[in-house]
Amino acid sequence: MFAVLKTGGKQYKVQAGDVLRVEKLAANAGDKIQFNEILMVGGDTVTVGAPLVAGAAVQAEVIDQIKGEKVIHFVKRRRKHSSQRTKGHRQQLTLLRVTDILASGAEASGVAAATGAADARRAAHEAPAAKE
Predict the structure, then answer these.
(1) Cis omega before residue 128 (within 30°)?
(2) How does the record describe its quaternary structure (predicted)?
């Protein structure tokens, strides 16, 4: 059985036991999370969502929070000015192991939904304003 899930603006085709590197999620190592944005579920029968498959989910375990390879951005201006600039960047990633694919019954599983780091910061920032 396989599923196509959407997270971090990208789509991934996964099976149980796969290891993924996705954009950073708000979770710690050892946490169990669930992806609810499932575009397609396949196996004996294929179910294609319009745009999402209702009730489907992919459960995964967080292995670690890692950084990607370093990307160098080098700019050199020529002729009379001869200036140069170097910038580096390492993307924050989350390493996951897919444990289970649910074709239905995702609401009753009781596993926390996967949220990005930006969503978690936004929720934490808005929470004190709601209390006041």
Answers:
(1) no
(2) Part of the 50S ribosomal subunit. Contacts protein L20.
What span, in angstroms and rounded, lies between the C-alpha atoms of 107 and 63? Answer: 24
Are 12 and 21 spatial neighbours (Cβ–Cβ below 8 Å)? no
Tell me if the pTM is above 0.90.
no
* DSSP-based three-state secondary structure for 122: helix
Contact at 8 Å (CB) between 71 and 88?
A: yes
SS percent in the chain: helix, strand, coil, step 5? 10, 55, 35
Give Cα 69 distance to the centre of its chain: 17
Q: Which residues of the chain have pLDDT under 50?
A: none
| 109: amino acid identity, one letter | S
Closest by CA position to 22, among listed 8, 36, 34? 8
Q: What pairing do the DSSP bridges indicate for beta strands 32-35 and 57-76?
A: antiparallel
